[in-house]
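I'd like us to work through together how a protein chain folds, taking it slowly. To get us started, please write out a protein record for me. Go ahead whenever you are ready, and we will take it from there:
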Amino acid sequence: MLYWLLQQFAPAMEQVGQHASGDSRVFLTARTALASVTSFLLAIALGPAAIGWLKGRFRERIASASERLNELHADKASTPTMGGLFVVGATVLAVLLFGDLTSRYVQLAVFTALGFGGLGAVDDWTKLRSSQNGLRARTKLLVQSLLAGVVAFALFRHQGSLPLGTDLVWPIGNATLALGVLFVPWAVFVLVGSSNAVNLTDGLDGLASGCTVFAGAAFVGLTYLAGHAVLADYLGIPFVTGAGEMAVVMGALVGAVLGFLWFNCYPAQVFMGDTGSLPIGALLALAALVTRQEVLLAVVGGVFVVETLSVIAQVGWFKLTRRRILRCSPLHNHYVLGGQHELKIVVRFWIGSALLALVAVASLKIS
């Protein structure tokens, strides 16, 4: 909306536009900052009313496979969940206000947030309204793959003609691998994998939301740089026309999650549920795919990757040996059962996430 209004004054802003950031003539830096602040304020403003509404309808059901873990988390049973509703709502509203709605990337971001958020809401609703532990894994994976397939195909059509638009790029040294049509299944894998990785991490008060702030902030910078021809050339990263608009999206996401963290920090007043974790992971993946930085996504989201690998290792090793590597997976539960305080675990994971984000961004200048 703001983008459209500013465009109406384009003739009077011709000289100013020559100095705008990246390939956007309409104040990309300011719009990114405004989207972040606005989504934060929306989340803070919507939070109390949303929590009150959720409290009467959707309360967390503690039903993990570990009886000991259920005992330790018993006091969380009355906490309202599906708080991702106001995370997604604040993000989308801020993007609609400050994003360029003619941008294919903005359109795909809104579709991703609403699509994955809707799937998460159905999964949470099924978990809370029935004896099932959410949707069946195959059903959930199928819908995720279909949503991701739409996004992947649209990206392939849009970026196929761009230099390195569908290539896999190794950030150090910029070695590339041309994917061609294989970009589509690769993008589906990245979107679904990232979505589920954030979902697995969402197990302690503030854990997933805090790590998302650091990972999202890194991608605010990465998308901004990728959409700026001069800075992209200086850093030796792929320049993607229009990628700067994703900075507005990621700024809105970071602001909304920060606002949510206000209520989600220990002791949590609300949980995000799959309603929040699935779209958050998918939006991080979308930013990585747009900027051709999927490898850096694995570094920036290293906490999410480790949490996912801990589940895979636990299940795989148990099937092979009937023994467990960890006390309980994902990894954060291993430390919970080891007697560490929840807040200490969360803050240490935040520190790890912050360091990984710094390492990822710093690696851009290593040639």
Notes: The first strand starts at residue 167 and ends at 169. Residues 300 and 356 are 5 Å apart (CA to CA).
